[in-house]
Amino acid sequence: MNNTNELNAKKCVFGLLRRALHIIIFAFLCTNAAAQNTVVSGSVTDERGTPLPGANIVEKGTINGVTADFDGNFSINLINEQATLIVSYLGFTSKEEMVNGRSKLILTLSESATSLDEVVIIGYGTQKRKAVG
């Protein structure tokens, strides 16, 4: 009879440990899910207020990024609540913007004539007009 009591006591202890482990895992998963739900939205414009469609918005130090829509609007789910966003667009100076807990950002980029010098288009060869089209 003594062995039965010891066996029941061990089952009870293991059951409590199993429940405690499940609670710890559940709590860990909930905190991770909450940390990834930080959404920041906004718009990207030039200095005159013209939207910049296709502007790139990337969370610094990650591969997490989005592209602005036709009206320059974006929405990004951040990995880190205190992230820094890097905003870039061809022909404009890239900008870094700290989120600092904000959920709405209006980002303005300034034109950069020097970055246009980086684009080179080269065409070689000739063709007769009827061969092209």
Which features does this protein show?
Immunoglobulin-like, elongated, 133 residues, 7 strands, 4-stranded antiparallel β-sheet
Model description:
The chain is α+β, with helices and mostly antiparallel strands. It folds into two domains: 1-35; 38-116, Carboxypeptidase-like, regulatory domain (Immunoglobulin-like, Sandwich). Helices cover 32% and strands 26% of the residues. It has three helices and seven strands; from the N terminus they run αβββββββαα. The protein has helices at residues 2-35, 113-116, 129-132, and strands at 38-45, 56-59, 65-67, 73-78, 84-88, 95-98, 104-108. The strands form two sheets. Strands 3-2-5-6 form a four-stranded antiparallel β-sheet, with no helix packed on it. The mean pLDDT is 79.
Summarize the structure.
InterPro entries: CarboxyPept-like_regulatory. The chain is an alpha+beta fold and 133 residues long.
> How many distinct helices?
3
Total domain units: 2
* Classification by helices and strands: alpha+beta
CATH class of the largest domain: Mainly Beta
Assign the CATH superfamily of the largest domain. Answer: Carboxypeptidase-like, regulatory domain
Shape: elongated
Write the layout of secondary structure elements.
Elements: H1 2-35, E1 38-45, E2 56-59, E3 65-67, E4 73-78, E5 84-88, E6 95-98, E7 104-108, H2 113-116, H3 129-132
Parallel strand pairs: 1-7
Antiparallel strand pairs: 1-4, 2-3, 2-5, 5-6
